[in-house]
User: What shape does this take?
Amino acid sequence: MTTKLLNIVTGINRPSVPSSGSMILVNDLYGAMPDIHTTFLGRAPVDQAWQTAFDQLITLSTPKRPHGLDFEPYVDELTREVGALIEKIQPHAIHAQYLGFALSLAFTRTAGTIPIIAIAHGPDVMMAERSASEHEVMNEVAAASAAIVAPTPVLADRIDRLTGRRFTDRLTVIPWGIPLSEARVRDQPPTGIRPLSLVHAGRLDDNKSTITAVEALALTDQPHHLTVIGKGNLREYLARRAIELGLRDRVHFDPFLPRAELWHRLPNFDAFVFTTTGLEAFGLVLIEAQAHGLPVAYSDLPGVGEILGGAGVPYAPGDPRSLAVALDQMGRDFHRRKSLTEAALHNARRYDITTTGCQLRELTLRVTRSTSETRTGTGALTGASRAREPGTTAVPGQLA
Assistant: This one.
C-alpha cells in the first residue's frame, strides 16, 4: 500500500540561501519530513545546493517593501502573485512561516478553504511587540490559521498574550531540532585546569549581546580565549572594544560560516558562550553546541535552561561580571566540565530534526483531515474547520 503524499506550500520571503537559523531550520525540516511534496516560495538569489530539500522552489517576483505607506499595496501585489500560485498548486495545507510578515499575510488572504498552519520563529513575535502594524498583521494571520506552532512554551505564551488569548486552543509546541547524525564529538576532550577555548556564534547585533562575552574576558581570573563567529552591524564596534580592553590576543573574529564548516570547528573548543539578552525563540545553536560535546555558559533567559536540560552554566543576562565568574568556575573544575559534556550530549538527543518533522507532519494531517471531513459533511465541526467559523476557537493543540 502506497502512502499518499501530503502536498504543502511554504516559504520565507528572503533570498533562498542558508543565511540564518530560520532558513537552515526549514531546509532541515522539510528534508526530514516523510511522505510530503513541498513547494517553497522564496527570493533570488537561490543557493542551488540548499534548495534540494524542496521538491519545487519558486522565486517570488513582487518587489519587497517594508511597513509604511507602501506596505498595503505591496501586500496586495504579493497576494495576487501568491494566489495564482496557490490556485495552480492546490496544496493540502499551507505552512506560513513567521506570524505577521507579508508572505504569511498573502497566504492568509488567498488560502480559501486550504488550512493554514502558522509557524513562529521569534523575530515575528519581537516585531509584533514593538510595532502596532505588525501586531495587527499577527492577529490577522493567527485568526485565519488552523494551528499556530511555536518551538517553546515561553514563545507560545507570548503569542497567546499578543493575540489576546483568543487562539489558545490553536497553539501547539513543537520543539525544533538538528540533524544529529551529522554531529561529531572530540575524541579526547582536554583535561586539567587551564584557560578555556571559548566560542560564540550568531548575529552580531544588540539582542545577541556579544559585547557581554567580550567584556567578560576582561574580568576573568584566567586568560580564556574567545572566538566570535558571525556577521552583523556591531562587528567593528566589538573589535574596537576588544582592543580597548587589552584583549587583542584573546578575542578572535571569524566571518559567518556555513553550518558544515561551523560544525567541523565546534569540537575544537572547550565551551560555548550564549549571550542573548532579549527574546530567543529557541536557540538552535545551543543544541548544536551540545551535540558536539560543548558545555554552555548561557544567559538565564526564560525557557533557555529548560531547552538545555540543565546541562549548562547560567549567568545573569547582559552582566559581564556574572559571566566571568561562570567561565572561571568552568575553567577551574574539570570534573564539572566533563559532567556537563556528558549531560549536554544526552540532552541534545532530545532534539533530532526527524522528530520535529514527524510531529509537524502529524499536526498537518490532523488539520487537513478535519477540513476534508467538513467539506464532505462526514465529520463534526471540529479542529481546523471550527477555527474558520466566526466567534469560535479550535484545532487540536497544546500549550505545554
About this structure: Residues 379-400 have pLDDT under 50 and may be disordered.
